[in-house]
Amino acid sequence: MRLDDLDPSKNARDHGRGSGGRMGGGGGGLGMLLSFLPMLLGRKMGCGTILLIGGAIAVFMFFGGGASMLGGGGGSQTAGTVYDTAEEQFAGRVLTSTEQTWSKLFQQNGSRYRPPLLNFYEGGVSSQGCGSASSSAGPFYCPADQGIYLDTSFFKELETRMGARGDFAKAYVIAHEVGHHIQNLSGIADQVRQNQGRVSKAEGNALQVRMELQADCYAGVWAAQNASRMEPGDVEEGLNAAHAIGDDTLMRNAGQRPIESMFTHGSSEQRMAWLRKGMQTGDPATCDTFARGAVR
């Protein structure tokens, strides 16, 4: 994907190396083995939240109480000194592209787009409202502070462990997290969290799947809106990444039988289908994963 003509976004900061720690709120059935997973219900949402669990026994949905602000994390920096690696510069350019795209789309609907803050960190970080996380959790979005949190070492894990190679695979990850930001701005995230509090765990997981698939579709919309920047092979890279992070694929790679009621992000086929739909239409209105019959 051609992004070299874009300046990295000013909406970024670098937390440096931090100690991480446990997540804010409660844990789940596998205790410390899965303690690095973000709490998805109303807290951290993201493409990477279940990517690095190849050795785990299963994928669990976490419900919990209020988020806490824990220690850890380094000092933040100004935007001008954030981008000190090529991977960070690439992420910043992707964010700039999403800002341009969503600002245009919001303006068409008579509203103003407020971009998220991209937070770089190494090892661990304490987010402003979603507690602490280690880099093993993967990239995530925190609705409380409207921040995307990224340890760029994840890109190497995505390529080597998941087999999702190419620059567009990395861009898709960031665009997916921006998709969660769109859900937060539009009020969809709040509605889903409220509904999740009234239903069973399995039903709450199903709602979360629709959230993740919609974020995939929004990532596809962003790609379609930037078709002139796409290069041969980019579409295949994105679809391959979506396939690699499907719940069923992750469970099989962990040596487990896929159990649909435990899915929190969607199957590989579902993720590919919704990313493809966004790419084909370029219209966020087509990303209504909550419509009756939209997700099968």
Short description:
The protein has 296 residues and is α/β, with parallel strands linked by helices.
Structure description:
It is a single chain. With 296 residues, the protein is of the alpha/beta class. 40% of the residues lie in helices and 9% in strands. The protein is built from eight helices and six strands; from the N terminus they run βαβββββααααααα. Strand 5 and strand 6 (147-150) form a beta hairpin. Helix 5 runs parallel beside helix 8 (268-281). The longest helix has 25 residues, at 201-225.
What percent strand?
5-15%
Please work out how many helical segments DSSP would assign. 8
Main β sheet profile: 4 strands, mixed
What is the share of helical residues?
Answer: 25-40%
Shape: globular
Main sheet: strand order: 1-2-6-5
Strand elements, count: 6
Derived structural class: alpha/beta
Evaluate the radius of gyration: 17 Å
Give the termini distance in whole angstroms. Answer: 32 Å
Mean pLDDT: 82
Give the SSE order as H and E letters.
Answer: EHEEEEEHHHHHHH
Which residues form runs of ≥5 with pLDDT under 50? 21-43, 48-79
Total domain modules: 1
Q: What is the quaternary state of this protein?
A: single chain
